[in-house]
Amino acid sequence: MQRIIRVLSVMLILMSCVSLAACANNEESESSDDTGKELGDKAVTLASDTYVSNIGATYVVKQLLEEVGYNVTVKETDVGIEFSGLASGSSDASVGLWLPGTHASYWEEYKDKLDKMSMVTEEVELALTVPSYMEDINSIEDLANNKNNIGKKLDWDITGISPGAGMMELTKGKVMPAYGLDKNWKLQSSSGPAMAAELKSAIDKKEPIVVTLWTPHWTFNEFDLKMLEDPKNKYGKPDNVYGVSRKGFKEDSPLAYKIIDQFNWTKKQNQDVMYSIQSGMSNEDAAKEFLENNPDFKEKMLEGVETK
């Protein structure tokens, strides 16, 4: 009889263990399913223009998304294609929407097909900019008045960036006519890197130069520069940078949307990443180094998110 009782006891213990294991497996399965649902579509395409101020932010976000389990592709294009791609759904999100000024025309054109997200960086500025050693040139009006024959010294050229950039449209369409610069001065199109190279070349020779520039930008880490006063306020108040996504991205990849929506950093943090890239580090490595050196920032950006 005692033997039968012992056998029954062993059988009960074994059955309890099997039941507990099954419960644990079910809970784990449910947890995995929940995580999968939260991730949604794991393939995410981030759009960026070719300006290093937005590239740095994009690659930091890429690292954060990959930390969670997403497969991220970065698509670098002209700013116009960036926004048309988001509107058409060929890209998922960007962290480079500058409002209310710089990208106003793109936002007005595509806003019905886009979701504006939270602010990424506060008060980014646009301005015509010169080296600080140009002591007599402090305002756009100094250019308009040809102070110290500055126009002739520069062959009446302002060194710009790509023609589709919001800053170029604003400079050519509003700033130059308001100050009468459109009568003599010419806004020369190039690219962000070409503009920076021209600036460096002039500074190395201590020659005068006027460029279209903005903050954040790595050149402010490298050179002593000053943004010219804009007494007519044609560049407007400083923009804020926002995240933006295609319609439906929040539902398709909820966790990716959450991470991008809570991503924000300072101009200095952006400039530090930009400067690393400019100094020869790859976009990926610069973003990775920044996150490794700023663990509190990384923890804050992934708040409420379980990493893989």
TrEMBL record:
Keyword Repeat carried by entry: no
Primary location group: membrane
Gene Ontology terms describing biological process: choline transport; glycine betaine transport
Keywords: Cell membrane, Membrane, Signal, Transport
Signal peptide: 1-21
GO molecular function: amine transmembrane transporter activity; carnitine transmembrane transporter activity
Protein's cellular compartments: Cell membrane
Name by which UniProt lists this protein: ABC-type glycine betaine transport system substrate-binding domain-containing protein
Species of origin: Lentibacillus kapialis
